[in-house]
Specification:
2 domains, 247 residues, single chain, mainly alpha, flat, 10 helices
Length: 247
């Protein structure tokens, strides 16, 4: 195992700053073009936007640096340690817990839930959406860990999973169908990808006869599928309750 005590906190920070700059500069140029020729917002609004961009730049830079020196190394170390356990099935409930916590703390998930709550005027509460997505991702992480432990092919999950998702979409409402497929992309955010994927890769590396390229990867596909299924199921529950109230 590596020695995490020798990690330099700001090693490679210059490269991270450059990457974030290259990502934000086109957005700023796009905004300035519309500001000059179309929007013509007052200076106070523009100043607030510029301050927000600066904070975004600092936040993304520090977050990505933390990922490189903290999340990824720690995740790999945890995966290596768990891979040496005699009762490796314990990683399945641990994966469930980690998936729930990571999704619960995911910023993009919070934004989606608040927007859904606002657009639907509280018809779909943000807390209900948060727990629905968190439970769905937690189940998918647990299944991903079981797949690594027992060497189950990825297609055994992905094929039937998307078949069920498309089937549920036929019976769910258009509102929940639209939210569901957006939720699938939102849930695969930095918290899940950086920490849990690192654990899965470290774990698969320690297992005899496992290939990290085949077993470690593929988990994000399950994470993207899980919110789709959970939100569609929630939509069916809403639809069933409405039909009962109408009767």
């Amino acid at each position: 195992m590596g020695d995490l005590s020798n990690v330099k906190v700001f090693y490679g920070f210059g490269d991270v700053l450059l990457e974030v700059s290259m990502a934000l500069i086109p957005l700023m140029l796009f905004f300035l073009f519309f500001q000059v020729f179309m929007l013509k917002l007052p200076w106070n609004r523009v100043k607030g936007i510029l301050i927000g961009v600066v904070l975004t730049f600092l936040g993304l830079s520090l977050f990505l640096q933390g990922v490189h020196v903290g999340f990824l190394p720690v995740g790999r170390e945890i995966g290596d340690i768990v891979g040496d356990w005699e009762n490796q099935w314990i990683l399945i409930p641990v994966g469930f817990l980690l998936g729930f916590v990571a999704t619960f703390a995911e910023p993009a998930v919070r934004v989606l839930n608040l927007e859904v709550d606002k657009v639907t005027s509280g018809y779909i509460p943000s807390k209900l959406m948060l727990y629905t997505l968190s439970i769905g991702v937690a189940i998918s992480i647990a299944l991903a860990m079981a797949r690594i432990i027992y060497g189950i092919p990825l297609w055994y999950f992905i094929g039937p999973g998307y078949f069920i998702a498309l089937s549920l979409a036929l019976f769910s409402t258009e509102t929940f169908t639209s939210i569901a497929f957006d939720a699938g992309g939102v849930a695969t955010g930095p918290m899940t990808v950086t920490f849990i994927l690192a654990i899965a890769l470290g774990f698969s590396e320690t297992l005899e006869g496992r290939d990290p390229l085949l077993d470690g990867f593929g988990m994000i596909a399950l994470v993207a599928l899980a919110p789709i299924l959970s939100v569609l199921v929630l939509g069916l529950i809403f639809k069933f309750n409405e039909s009962r109230s109408d009767d």
